[in-house]
Structures are given as structure tokens and as C-alpha cells.
Write a structure and sequence with these properties.
Layout lengths: L7 H15 L28 E7 L13 H10 L4 E4 L9 H9 L3 E2 L2 E6 L2 E6 L10 H4 L8 E4 L12 H5 L6 E5 L10 H10 L3 E4 L12 E4 L5 H9 L3 E5 L4 H17 L13 E3 L17
Helix pairs in contact: 1-8
């Protein structure tokens, strides 16, 4: 039986305290030997340049969180970060129209419609959801499955009330990919369990930022080997032609994000943007991931 879910606030506070405490130790279990070269991804040769992708982003249209930037401001930031494909996934609200699609296209970005649905009090990312379909429980989620719709399990094992936790393995066949979320430190990483599931089940793992503040964009994302159209991208995700680009956050970054997130939740007011460095680490394909990380290319 799963332990009762923790409140999001409690989870954030616990992560901050553990990160600060463990940062005092000189020994890190996350210390890795880096490979300077490495094999070609997936043992295949891809002629096209991989696409820089983030499928978990929030904007001021979100009805649950008071995000401090508009959809167009997010698209502009994504263009500045050289993203190729993004999806705005506000909670239980589809933020997508022709104007936004055309604006993103002008920035050389493919904008895919998306939403972070609440199903049985758990969050699920649905990209390009079919119109006029309601989802009340996990059994009805199965009716959304089709080649032109992608279903992702976001931050599945994070200590928050809306995380999937035990529902993930119970309904794993409903999902196309599992999310590796940006919010972790060198010592505390709630992604480890989903990484184990991805390897054990040979299940696609995709990196997303779950951006609520523009400074989070680019901390964790994916490089997907596909043509720049929705069907090709979705097919590549299902075929696991993905590289996850990520790095652990420092205790200062963890504290800054948590403080701003709690302020947003408690006051209901948008929070001003912050800044941090952009160093990154690349995770290899999930089923072949060893204890070593692979350095990203300069292009990443």
C-alpha cells in the first residue's frame, strides 16, 4: 500500500532541508565519471539535427497557479533558448489558438496544444487532446489514446498530493512516456524511482522543466530525433529516440524556486523572475542508462 501523499508544501520544505543538510557532506553518491565521447544515440545515425523540446510549461492563463508571464512571453523566451518544439500545459485548461500557433511559427517554434489534466486528483500531461472528450477517471483516459495524442506521466514520484505515485504502475499502459523533472539536487532526487521504472520496463523517459518561472526554462529538457512536425515527434517519443538534458540544482536554486513557488501558492500573486547558470548534464537513453552521465555536446 502506498504511503499517504504529502502536501506539496511539506514536500518542498523537506527537500530544502535535506538539500541544505546533505550539502555539508564532502561525499556525494551522485558523483559520476564522465565520458567525453560516447556512442551515437540509440545505435542509429540520424541525419537531421535533434529537436530541443519541453512539453511541460505553465503561463499566466493557468487557473491553478498565478504565473507571472504570458504565453507569448514564454514563446519569446523559448525562442531565445533555441527551443524547436514546446507545449503549454496549464492545469485543466487548454492554452492554444491560431494566434499563438502563428506567433510561435514566426519564432521558428512548433507549438503543440497540451494540458495538465487532473484525473482522480492526480496530474497527467495530455498533448494534442481530442476535442469534446471528458476524462473523469483513469479508465476513461484510455479513450484518449491514439497516434496523434501523447500522454505523459509528470513528476510521478515527487512528494506531492497530485503526483501519480502508485497509480503509475497500476496504469502504466495508458502512458506513452515518463517525465524526468528538473526539480532535484545532487543529493535529493525524486526522479530516481521513475528512472528505475523506465529502465526496468524499457519505457521512454522525457525531460521537462515544469516551468512556472521563466528562469526554470532550459534546466531540464529533451533532444528528440524527429522531423519538425507533431506526428514525427510523437512517433519518436514512443520509439524512445530521446536524450534527456538535465543537471541538478544547487541548494541556492532549490531554495529560490521553493520560496517563490510557496509565495505564489500562499499569496496568489505572480512572482518576479530570477536567474541562474545554465550548465547541464546529459542522461543517456533510459534503457541503457548506467551510473555514468554523458557530457552534452556544445550544441546542446
Amino acid at each position: 500500500m502506498d504511503a499517504p501523499p504529502l502536501d506539496l508544501t511539506d514536500g518542498l520544505i523537506r527537500l530544502i532541508l535535506k538539500t541544505v543538510m546533505h550539502s555539508l557532506s564532502p561525499i556525494s553518491p551522485f558523483k559520476r565519471a564522465y565520458r567525453s565521447g560516447g556512442r551515437k544515440p540509440f545505435g542509429l545515425v540520424h541525419r537531421q539535427k535533434p529537436l530541443k523540446v519541453d512539453f511541460h510549461l505553465h503561463t499566466a492563463d493557468d487557473p491553478l497557479d498565478r504565473v507571472g508571464y504570458t504565453a507569448k512571453e514564454l514563446i519569446l523566451k523559448a525562442a531565445d533558448e533555441e527551443f524547436d518544439v514546446i507545449s503549454i500545459t496549464n492545469h485543466d485548461r487548454l492554452t492554444f489558438n491560431q494566434d499563438l500557433f502563428d506567433y510561435a511559427h514566426e519564432m521558428d517554434i512548433l507549438l503543440i496544444p497540451g494540458i495538465e489534466m487532473t484525473i482522480e486528483n492526480r496530474h497527467v500531461l495530455v498533448l494534442n487532446p481530442p476535442r469534446n472528450r471528458t476524462v473523469s477517471d483513469f479508465s476513461s483516459l484510455s479513450r484518449l489514446r491514439r497516434p496523434e495524442t501523447l500522454i505523459i506521466a509528470p513528476h510521478p514520484y515527487f512528494p506531492a498530493i497530485h503526483s501519480l505515485n502508485g497509480h503509475l504502475l497500476k496504469h502504466l499502459d495508458l502512458f506513452d512516456a515518463l517525465e524526468y523533472c528538473h526539480f532535484y539536487s545532487p543529493r535529493i532526487n525524486f526522479n530516481q524511482k521513475v528512472l528505475h521504472v523506465s529502465r526496468a520496463k524499457d519505457f521512454p523517459l522525457i525531460g521537462n522543466s515544469d516551468t512556472h518561472f521563466l528562469s526554470q526554462l532550459g534546466t531540464t529538457y529533451s533532444m528528440i530525433h524527429a522531423e519538425k512536425n507533431m506526428n514525427s515527434v510523437f512517433a519518436a517519443v514512443r520509439a524512445n529516440r530521446i536524450e534527456v538534458i538535465t543537471r541538478p540544482l544547487s541548494p541556492l536554486e532549490i531554495g529560490s524556486i521553493a520560496r517563490r513557488f510557496l509565495k505564489m501558492k500562499l499569496t496568489g500573486k505572480p512572482v518576479k523572475p530570477g536567474k541562474w547558470s545554465r550548465s547541464r548534464t546529459t542522461l543517456a537513453r533510459s534503457h541503457s542508462l548506467s551510473k555514468e552521465f554523458r557530457k552534452p555536446s556544445q550544441a546542446a
